[in-house]
Amino acid sequence: MKSFTFKKIDAFATNNSDGNPAGYISLNSFNDINDNEMLKIASQLRGYVNEVGYITKSDNRKYTLRYFSAEREVEFCGHATIAIMYDIIKNDKELINTYEINITTNKGQLIVQNRIKEENAVFIMSPIPKFNKTQIPIEKIAEVLKIKISDINIKPEIINAGLETLIISINSLETILSMKPNLEELREFCFGYNIDIIEVFCNEVESSDTAYRTRVFAPKFGYLEDPATGSGNSALGYYLLNHKRWDGNIISIEQNGFKDRYNVVKLKTQVDSNDVNRVLFGGGAVTRIEGKYNLL
């Protein structure tokens, strides 16, 4: 039997919402566990957390992360990164006063900004975006989401800011909240078009403090909806920048299918060392469970 330090942490939670649950396992080394074991743990936690993040520390300000859903390894998981790095920074006497920490993921090296004291949040610089030119018929998208073609504002786009994300502009909050797609139909659609997640959004919001409402569907990872996501909303950020619908200053995004019990994901931009304007996603987290995970 192997035993690991384990926490269940809800990322992007607010006083009025549950956030997005992530499992968090701290390792001395990735030699302590193999890929099958990481997948087995994530599979055992299906329905309890959406993804499990595994992390090792190379020195005081550098960490390596990998992510698994119940179905497979995930290239990048924004909410698990928020959950893990918020917890690590908040509970380390040196890191709590450190502004930037480096992490390595399957998407390369990324920067974590510590804003816990100022905003009760950490911000993660999303991977450099890739823009997919694949065109998916709007009729097919409307059919699989079980909405009308007229509910879609403009031509959808696919952007990868960690995950291959289909971005769809919807004309009303009512339409977004009423969506009830079928898990298996949506899963087949995503595999067929090589899409990781589908993000729908509109500029009609519940709160005057937020800029957009989103919902994210992620059937390839073994569940229908992701209640709060970093990579998806980062892709949305790049979409908004390209369409001149955001100036890059900090904004808050409402996310999930509940009218007034939404999670909050923050977005901002920063020019990186290569002079590329990058989207950062941010938020806080709440630890729900901590202890030992025994893998038989």
Strands, helices and their partners?
Elements: E1 2-11, E2 20-26, H1 35-44, E3 51-59, E4 62-68, E5 73-74, H2 78-90, E6 100-105, E7 108-115, H3 116-119, E8 121-125, E9 130-132, H4 138-145, E10 157-160, E11 164-169, H5 173-178, H6 183-192, E12 197-202, E13 212-217, E14 225-226, H7 230-242, E15 251-255, E16 263-271, E17 277-283, E18 285-295
Parallel strand pairs: 2-3, 4-6, 11-12, 13-15
Antiparallel strand pairs: 1-2, 1-18, 3-4, 4-5, 6-7, 7-8, 8-17, 9-10, 10-11, 12-13, 13-14, 15-16, 16-17
Quick summary:
The chain is α+β, with helices and mostly antiparallel strands. The protein is built from seven helices and 18 strands.
What is the name of the CATH superfamily of the largest domain?
Diaminopimelate Epimerase, Chain A, domain 1
**CATH-scheme architecture of the largest domain:** Roll
- Helix segment count? 7
- CATH class placement of the largest domain: Alpha Beta
Radius of gyration: 18 Å
Query: Strand percentage, roughly?
Result: 35-45%
First-last Cα distance? 5 Å
Which stretches are low in confidence, meaning pLDDT under 50 for 5 or more residues running? none
Could you describe the largest sheet, including whether it forms a barrel? 18 strands, mixed
Q: Work out the count of structural domains.
A: 2
CATH topology of the largest domain: Diaminopimelate Epimerase, Chain A, domain 1
Assign the structural class, choosing from mainly alpha, mainly beta, alpha/beta, alpha+beta, or little secondary structure: alpha+beta
Q: Which word captures the global form?
A: globular
* Integer average pLDDT: 95
How many strand units? Answer: 18
Question: What is the H/E string?
Answer: EEHEEEHEEHEEHEEHHEEEHEEEE
Helix content: 10-25%
